[in-house]
Amino acid sequence: MTIERLREWVQSSNNTVILTGAGMSTESGIPDFRSASGWWNNIDPRTVATTDALTQNYSLFYEFYKIRIENLEKAAPHEGHKILADWEKRGKVLLVATQNVDGFHQLAGSQKVEELHGSIRSIRCHRCQQAASMDNFLNKVSCSHCGGKLRPNVVLFGEGLPQASWHKTMEAMKAAELVLVIGTSLEVYPVNQLPMMTRGKTVYINLDISQHATQFDITIEGKIKEVLQQLQV
Ligand code: OAD
Q: Does the model's pTM come out above 0.70?
């Protein structure tokens, strides 16, 4: 069976790289982007997740991130996040590269994490880049340094990815023996290029695998928490 073959692969690899997307956190109660209940089914990303949105319609930009930050306060990593952290502790996982900004991999205990789309848990000034407090952002206060608009340290559409994280992830992908791609639609460039950069075995675990079925050595259609629980050894 596919799951047994994958369990063997996980067991025998000492250089596994994990790439996660928003589907990793839906079972923690955080919506993803492109599912029926995802953010982009209700809001046009151009109105909230771009630098234009930030500079031209700050109120809507602010409301969107405020809701997402407040959602995090009620949520926590689930068993699946913890299983990945456990694999790292046992020397099996060398890197978790994530598009998620929620910090759940680190909260679950993963230490080798690259946040390719930044973090929603820290704040800076969009103009002068000075760090600012979460309270100031949530209270809609301007930058104390230059009066600029405060924003979370996430990557907005139109912005580049954090270069050091991107390069580390590419190198890890190239060297990986096994790559598990988990809970991402693979719609967003350049992260969707990463699975093609490895010579290792590739696996895709997602609720809907139809778009990428032929691109991976193994595809598993299912809920992440259940699948990871079945793989836990
Ligand atoms: P998407 O919402 O595009 O994709 C999430 C995928 O996870 C979908 O294919 C779902 O079917 C799947 N999924 C959801 N819950 C699942 C579960 N419990 N088990 C298994 N699969 C599940 O999210 P991303 O691919 O992460 O960027 O989106 C990439 C980027 O687009 C985000 O980082 C964000 C967004 O716009 C920016 O805002 C820059």
A: yes
Measured in angstroms, how far is the CA atom of residue 184 from the centroid of ligand 1? 4
Number of domains in the chain: 2
What CATH number should be reported for the domain holding residue 138?
A: 3.30.1600.10
Domain that holds residue 129: 34-74+122-154
Task: Name the DSSP letter for residue 50.
Answer: B
Place of tokens 């930058």: 143
Section 38-51 average pLDDT: 96
In angstroms, what is the span from residue 13 Cα to ligand 1's centroid?
26
To test the pocket of ligand 1, the residue of 18, 25, 28, 34 to mutate (highest count of ligand atoms within 8 Å of its CB) is: 34
**pLDDT digits 0-9 by tens, 144-194:** 999 999 999 999 999 999 999 999 999 999 999 999 999 999 999 999 999
Residue 233 pLDDT exceeds 80: no
Token pair for 202: 């590739």
What's 203's domain CATH number? Answer: 3.40.50.1220
Q: Verify whether residue 117 is a known catalytic residue.
A: yes
Sheet holding 218-221, edge to edge: 113-115, 93-98, 16-20, 178-182, 201-206, 218-221
Per annotation, catalytic residue among 81, 117, 145, 212: 117
